[in-house]
Every structure is written in structure tokens, then in C-alpha cells.
Known about the structure:
By secondary structure, this protein is α/β, with parallel strands linked by helices. Helix content is 31%, strand content 20%.
Amino acid sequence: MKILALVPARGGSKGVPMKNISDLGGYPLIAHTIAAAKLSKLINRIIVTTDNLEIANISRKFGAEVPFLRPTEISGDSSTDFEFVKHTLDFLKQKEGYVPDFIIHLSPVIPLRDPEIIDKAIQSMIEDKEATALRSAYPYPQTGYKLTKIKNGYWEFFGAEDFEKGFEYYNLPRQALPKTYHPTCYVDIILPKTIEQTNTLHGKKIKAFIIEPTPDIDTTEDLENAREIFKSGSLLKEKLMELENGKLS
């Protein structure tokens, strides 16, 4: 099977400037994601999509392909995942005639991945012939059915359609409400055929893949937390050293 890891890494970042190449344990943040993909037994190609030449050069140093620089018009704060995934697919198909069976979307903002968990997610998709995509998530500490929004100045609670008698369901005890989950970009598996058939990334039958909570780098505090965790031991340290020294297998 053709299994492509696609790593998105814009140069712009509001919370942490040039976040994707920030130092984490002596290595650029993006290098951790490349190393995890390298250690996967099922991923057989790694591409970084970026608009930034410095990120591109660092990505190549650690063994990823960067066959293009992403156009500026799909690299802004409001640009969508669909845009860069579709751009990559179109580029590879036109230039190489290459269409992957699976795209493994691995964002650099989760640097402390376990390659075995990535492979477990891929294997579950290989075996599932009905899923249109896969997304990882972890159990949310509180039920989402207690959340609300404001519409025209009034509270509007989520999830009433899940209850036969929806009135004031949000006043039920937490234990009586369904468990809810927080989506994360630990591993996101996209099928090119889903994009072609539905013009969406995930389609309507998204396979659930449950993981433990993992540091997600949005702020400088998140980055410091990840640095402390990395000090205590990382599955990726040896591979990062190899890649830095030019051993790119």
C-alpha cells in the first residue's frame, strides 16, 4: 500500500513565533514528527507541506521530502486543512502520477507521538472497509452535554437531539449524560477517494481512535511542558540523533 505521512508546517504562528522549528530537547519541533513517521512500520513516504524555506530545509535535513513550497494563498491563518491536502494530492498526481491509498496527517504541534500507536491506527483503517476517515480523540474530563452557546441573547444547549425528552436534559447529573471526547491531531487518516467522492476531508463515517491525552503545542507554556516530558524520556531520542547525523533510513 502507498501510505503517505503529510506534515503541515506554516511559517506563520501567532502563539509561538516559528513554532514548528522551536527547540524541543535540542531538536526542532517538526523533527519529532518526522522521526515518529520514520519509525512507523507502515508509512512509506513522508512529505512536509510548508510555505517557509527555513522549515523546508530543516525538514529535508531530518529526512522528509519537500517537493514544493506551499502557495501563500493557502498558507494564511484562515487557510483550511482541505486546501493543503488537496494541493498536495493534485501536485503529486500531476508531477508523478502518484496517488496514495492513505494520507496520515501528522501535525507537528503534537511532538511526543508513539510510532506504534500511529501504526495501530493505520492497521485499524486497513481492516475497516466502511470508514471514510479516522480521527483520534481522548475522553473529555467533563461531558460536553453541559456546554452551551448564546443565540440571540439566550442560552442554547448542545445535544438535545440525543434525548427523547430533551427539555432540561442538561440538568441531569454528569454520570447520566453520555461520555464525550476531545478530537486531537495525534493521528488523522484521510482517504483520497473520500476527497474525490465527497469533496470533504473526512466524509460521514469517521472511525473513532481513542488515545491518552498528549501535549499539544499552542502556547509557550505548552512547549515548556513538552520539554519537561521529553527530558524524562522519549521514544524518539535515538532516531532524532540518527537523522541529525545524516542516517536517513
